[in-house]
Write a structure and sequence with these properties.
With 114 residues, the chain is mostly helical. The chain has helices at residues 17-24, 30-51, 58-96. α1 packs antiparallel against α2 (30-51). The chain is flat, with a radius of gyration of 26 Å.
Length: 114
């Protein structure tokens, strides 16, 4: 009688969480260790999502999506503000150094804050 798993017909295409954890014990490079940690975090995140109760209706899904969109819009607006301030700071820095077109620095390439 065959023991369970002794004659596997097809090799698995993915690791289980336990397999990834076991792989951790033999990894040597920093990159491999970092990737392994990311995979473990993905398993934890997936488990967390899978255990969350599903919304009762489409309306709840709409509200949740709207909330996520609002949060993402706020994050992107903050990022745009940071980028704008950085651009303005770069422009001031160029102007303070007396950068000119003939110096090989295109002053007009930096957008102005309008």
């Amino acid at each position: 009688m065959n023991k369970r798993g002794s004659n596997i017909k097809y090799l698995p295409y993915a690791f289980t969480e336990l397999g990834v954890a076991m792989l951790s014990s033999v990894l040597k490079s920093e990159t491999a260790i970092s990737v392994n940690r990311d995979i473990m975090r993905a398993f934890v995140t997936f488990r967390h999502i899978a255990t969350q109760p599903l919304p009762e209706s489409n309306e709840e899904l709409r509200k949740e999506i709207k909330s996520i969109r609002k949060e993402m819009d706020e994050i992107l607006a903050d990022q745009n503000d940071i980028n704008r301030r950085q651009t303005e700071s770069n422009q001031v820095h160029l102007n303070c150094r007396g950068a000119k077109e003939e110096d090989g620095v295109s002053v007009s390439a930096v957008p102005s804050a309008s």
